[in-house]
Every structure is written in C-alpha cells, then in structure tokens.
Amino acid sequence: MDILTWSTLSDDEQRRVLQRSPLVADDSLEQSVRQIIDAVASRGDAALMEFNLRFDGVSTESLRLTQAEIAAAGTRVSPELKQAIATATANIEAFHGAQQFRPVDLETQSGVRCELRSEAIAKVGLYIPGGSAPLISTVMMLALPAKIAGCERRVLVSPPPIDDAIVYAANACGITEIYRVGGAQAIAALALGTETIPAVDKIFGPGNRYVTEAKRLLSQDRRCTLSIDMPAGPSEVLVIADGDADCEFIAADLLSQAEHGPDSQVILVTDSSAIADGVNGALTRQLAQLSRREVAAQALASSRTLLVQDMRQAAQVSNLYGPEHLIIQTRAPRELLTDIRAAGSVFLGGYTPESVGDYASGTNHVLPTYGYSRAVSSLSLADFSRRFTVQELTATGLNAIGQTVMTLALSEGLDAHANAVKLRLASLAAVNPAQAEND
Ligand SMILES: NC(=O)c1ccc[n+]([C@@H]2O[C@H](COP(=O)([O-])OP(=O)(O)OC[C@H]3O[C@@H](n4cnc5c(N)ncnc54)[C@H](O)[C@@H]3O)[C@@H](O)[C@H]2O)c1
Ligand SMILES: N[C@H](CO)Cc1c[nH]c[nH+]1
Ligand SMILES: [Zn+2]
C-alpha cells in the first residue's frame, strides 16, 4: 500500500485520500431498477420467475421452499458447521437479548403521565446476498434479533440456488418462510407483495448495487410505506497501530476486509514507519496464500497507509473517515477509545481480529459504511421494533397545563388546537368551580 505522511498533505489531498467512490447511483442503474420494480408491481410472481431465469440462470417452479426442502438442506450440512452456527448463535442471542428496551413511564408534571413504549415490527424482510459467498453469518445477524424482538413474520429471500447452509442457518434461527428470489426483484416483492410473497414493513440486509438501489427507490415509493435498515456499501476497515503492534496481525485484518470485494476499502494509520513497511511486507506474503487474492489485490490497490505524528492524530484521522470497522492495536487501546467519535464497530487490542465480530463474538456485523457511522448506529435489537408514546392526563393535569397549551396554540394562530383545551377546561369549571379556581 502507498505510504503517505498525513501532515505533509494539503487539506484537499487529505480529503481525497479518505474519499470513497460515490454512493450516488447512476441514471442507467436507476432506470433498470425502476423497470424491474414496475414489472414486479404489475406481474407479480411471473415477473420474479422470469428474472430468476434471466439474472440467475435458474428456472423456478415454486418460489417458496417447502418444509421438506428445508429439512433436506439440513441433512447436507456438516456437523462442524452446525456446531459453529450453534456457538455463534448463543453469543449473538446473548448480546442482542441484553439489549431489551427499557420503557419510560413518568409524570412530567402532576397529572400529566407520559410513556415511551416499544413494540416489535410485525413483518420484516431479510435479504441474504447470493453470488460471491454464502453469507451464513448474515442470516444469523438478521434473523436472531428479529426473533428476539418478537417480529411475527420474518421473511427471508435470497437468489437461487440457495446454499444448503443458508437454508439450515435460517431454519435454525427460526425462519420459516424462505423464498428463492434475489436482486432488485426480491426487494420489490418484499415491498409491494406478490401472490406468494407478503409485503413487509421493513427490509434488512446487504446486497449489490441493484439491491441497494431498489431499497433506496422503494423506501420513497408511493405504492408502499417501506422502511429500510441503513445505507450499506462495500466493506471498510481502518487500523490504528503504534510501534508495539504485530505487522502480521495487521496485514491479516486488512486482507480480511479486502477479500470481500474489489471496492472494499482498507486503511492503516500508524505513527511508526517500521510498522508501515513491515505491514507492506506481510501483505505481500499473506496475499499470495489467499484463494481470493485477485479480489483482495484490487482492493489493496486503492488503499493507503497514513503516517501520523501520534495516536491522538490517528484518532482524528479515523474520525474524519468514520470507518465501518475500526481496529485499535496499540499499547493502551481502551484509552484511545475515548477519542473515537465515528466508527460502526471497534475492535480493541491484538487479540481482537475483525473476523470475530463478523461471525461469532455476539455483536452485529451489519454496520454503517460511507462515513454514515458519524450518525447511524450499528444494527441492534431496537431496529426491529418501533417506539411510540402514550399520554394520559387527569382533570388536575389538564387544568394545570391547559393555559400553556392554549397560549402556544394561539401564538401559532391555530384556534382549533386551543379550543380543544378550552372546551374541556370550561366543562371542568362547570362541574367543579372551586377546583377550577384553585388550579
Ligand atoms: N455491508 C455488509 O454488511 C455486507 C456484508 C456482506 C456482503 N456485502 C455486499 O453484498 C454484495 C453481495 O453481492 P452479490 O452480487 O454477491 O449478491 P446479491 O444477492 O446482492 O446480488 C445478486 C443479484 O443481483 C441481481 N443482478 C445481477 N446482475 C444484474 C443485472 N445486470 N441487472 C439486474 N440485476 C442483476 C440478480 O438478481 C442476482 O440475483 C457485495 O457487494 C458485498 O460487498 C455487504
Ligand atoms: N465484514 C462484512 C461486513 O462488512 C460481514 C461479513 C460476512 N461474512 C464475513 N464478513
Ligand atoms: Zn467480513
């Protein structure tokens, strides 16, 4: 990776070094995705089956997997993989189960009771990418919190043919509805509904540019009221390392995200030129051993090492970038954590590779990319429920707060608002004039 000294770069150069390729979809992508959405809207299942053949080369007799097909897939998965899924499941359930909502119920003033409640989203759609890798881990990251939150209908879609391990993991995580359809057409089916696939309230999950564009378009489409999880893009990792870090560990972590795709972005920030050089050597050695070395090499070609003055400056650079994953391999990693303002998930110390979070530590691997970590949180239990408020006033409460509401309403010129209070105050005064006087 190119090694650049941060303090010698102009403001413009610093911005360019930390830039991602643009998130905005091009017109031709938008147009083709709109055509797919409209075809699903007008022709439902028939359109889905045509797209399965055109884009995935699979002729589909039935979109929904039967119980027999789900059970048969399970028999073809190895005991080792089943055990690994069980271990990861236990950790993901423990971490997400501990995120239960704590309700708020209080009187803001005497007789004015306000509550914050939470309820599971009834119908959720979970997209599991097909194509380059069978993302068993993504099944767990979506299906387990949806189950813990209590979402009644949890619908999983994935391009055909669906890998046996995906089907097994889905079933093990409590998913009973699995449909063989992917791409923009799967998102359209989940948003609009078809003869077979139910329309859902919210769609979760990563995917390629067609999937991402369909989520964007349908979340603004007047034909439905769809919510989506977050803007997800190519994987990113930024490693902050001091002179004590292990070059082989750092290189391995950078490669673990580089292998996701040629558009993955990996960055090393260090105050040690020995580490910068050492990591480059380790990258060359380790890259040669990888099965996806061409993909990883393409990602590395646009990645950088940034030499900084000290760890404080390293944290500043990381905050400017806002990485999806931040790994801190320094003498006292937890001390640096207090300087971190933007990161999807943070990995502290030499024995915390990013892969553990991808698969099994318990945290969720669906994380904001493109610098959205400044404002968007990592996926959590809260994303699978909606919060709503409840309020209830006693007569005393209304008497006490009524004038405040009327003054504010009238100052906005909204007489009807004021009137809704005035009428009630008048009726209370008629029933109990002494009380009204006191209040
Ligand atoms: N951020 C994350 O958490 C995370 C995790 C895992 C994967 N990912 C990303 O998910 C993506 C997975 O992509 P994938 O392609 O492997 O699987 P995918 O399921 O997202 O896309 C495959 C589908 O794309 C559609 N498609 C392909 N070519 C098309 C065309 N020309 N026109 C219309 N539709 C077409 C097809 O319908 C096909 O079923 C990768 O970009 C990967 O980086 C992100
Ligand atoms: N690192 C990915 C999120 O950026 C998630 C993943 C799935 N499998 C392996 N990794
Ligand atoms: Zn990963």
TrEMBL record:
Record PROSITE patterns: HISOL_DEHYDROGENASE
Cofactor remark from the record: Binds 1 zinc ion per subunit.
Listed pathway(s): Amino-acid biosynthesis; L-histidine biosynthesis; L-histidine from 5-phospho-alpha-D-ribose 1-diphosphate: step 9/9
Binding site for substrate: S235, Q257, H260, H325, D358, E412, H417
Gene3D superfamilies hit by this protein: 1.20.5.1300, Nitrogenase molybdenum iron protein domain
CDD domains in the cross-refs: Histidinol_dh (cd06572)
Cofactor(s) the protein needs: Zn(2+)
Annotated binding of NAD(+), by residue: Y127, Q185, N208
Catalytic reaction(s) noted: L-histidinol + 2 NAD(+) + H2O = L-histidine + 2 NADH + 3 H(+)
GO molecular function: histidinol dehydrogenase activity; NAD binding; zinc ion binding
Coiled coil: none
Keywords linked to the UniProt accession: Amino-acid biosynthesis, Histidine biosynthesis, Metal-binding, NAD, Oxidoreductase, Zinc
Protein name (database record): Histidinol dehydrogenase
